[in-house]
Write a structure and sequence with these properties.
The protein is an alpha/beta fold. The chain has helices at residues 9-21, 32-40, 62-71, 89-97, 110-138, 142-152, 157-164, 168-182, 187-194, and strands at 2-5, 26-29, 50-53, 80-84, 102-105.
Length: 195
């Protein structure tokens, strides 16, 4: 989902049309505060989220909104592309150093902007997938984490049992629980998930 934040309705409408013409679903906001309320809801699109953020807006400017997203740890899940008619090189450099995904000045090239939006959406999808993997990892017990580490090191059940001082059957049970919690069927799939 492309989140378009601009105080000018005509700009929001044009960007929404541009996004949907490229098959990208879009939602627009007249203020940064509306975007932040949505971000706080924790509702992320499984296809990824990306933010097109104007710099100059009433109530809260784009830089302040970006700082809020950064403080909340959301810029990986919602990469921010600044889009402004009032930017300059120092502002762009500062925004990029602070973690903005990109910075475009109006007028902009439609294709370049939408290409970057699609890259942002892809990065957001990847970040979402990794967040799910980390959430699943957090469900493992301390012993399951030990078994997991040895499995990832390529050790067989017998070796894992010997190293941890437990029975091979216990290792098999832990291994089954790990695979179930991590939603994988093989050690190779597990290694691929955690690489």
């Amino acid at each position: 989902m492309l989140h378009i934040v601009d105080d000018e309705e005509v700009v929001r409408d044009a960007l929404t049309w541009l996004a949907t013409s490229r098959g990208i679903s879009a939602r627009s906001y007249a203020s940064a505060l509306q975007l932040l309320r949505h971000a706080d809801s924790g509702q992320f699109d499984p296809e990824g989220d990306c933010v097109l953020l104007d710099v100059r807006m009433p109530d809260m400017n784009g830089i302040a909104a970006f700082d809020q997203l950064s403080t909340r740890g959301l810029t990986q899940r919602m990469p921010v592309i600044f889009l402004t008619g009032h930017g300059d090189v120092p502002m762009a450099v500062d925004a990029l150093k602070r973690g903005a995904f990109d910075f475009f000045e109006k007028p902009f090239n439609d294709n370049q902007l939408m290409d970057r939006v699609q890259e942002g959406l892809a990065g957001s999808r990847k970040a979402g997938e990794m967040a799910q993997v980390h959430a699943r990892l957090a469900t493992l017990s301390a012993r399951e984490r030990e078994v997991l580490d040895l499995i990832l090191a390529g050790k067989m059940n017998k070796v894992v049992a010997d190293e941890l001082g437990i029975s091979m059957r216990t290792v098999e049970v832990h291994r089954a629980h790990i695979f179930d919690k991590m939603q994988v069927k093989t050690a190779v799939e597990l290694a691929g998930l955690l690489k």
